[in-house]
Amino acid sequence: MNSIPVDLSRLTGLLCVAAPEPKTDLDGEQRKDRDGNHLWVTGLAVRRAGTRKASVIDVQTSAQPEGVTEGSPVGVTELDVSLWEIEGRHGLSYKAASIYPKRPGNGGGSPAVPTPPQRERGGGKATGS
What we know:
The chain is globular and about 40 Å long. The protein has one domain (about 5-100): CATH 2.40.50. It is about 0% helix and about 40% strand. It contains no helices and eight strands. By secondary structure, the protein is mostly beta strands. Mean pLDDT is about 85; it is low at about 105-129. The protein has strands at about 5, 10-20, 40-50, 55-60, 75, 80-85, 90-95, 100. The strands form two sheets. Strands 1-6-7-4-3-2 form a six-stranded mixed β-sheet, with no helix packed on it. The chain has a two-stranded antiparallel ribbon with strand order 5-8.
């Protein structure tokens, strides 16, 4: 599955609307990525800069987002989107290197905690949802 990087400079108002929770399979077991890291999913409200309409997307990470709570402004690093299709169903899957809280009151310009190091980009390496 090919992943496409998202231009984060075109998004504004990133807000956590569903706190991070483990991504589970049908048996309730927490899923892991190809490297054996547990997967987490966080619901984010996003809005394209200059527009009024917001969308809610579930974003998957390979590490639990620390300090991210429902209703808090957040930042995202290395957001990718992938199109998937399984047995006649299809959709979009979002994955990020990290999701981190932003300090309120300063336009969200600096993270409340240090941003984790950037992950290595693999040649189209992505995990499905």
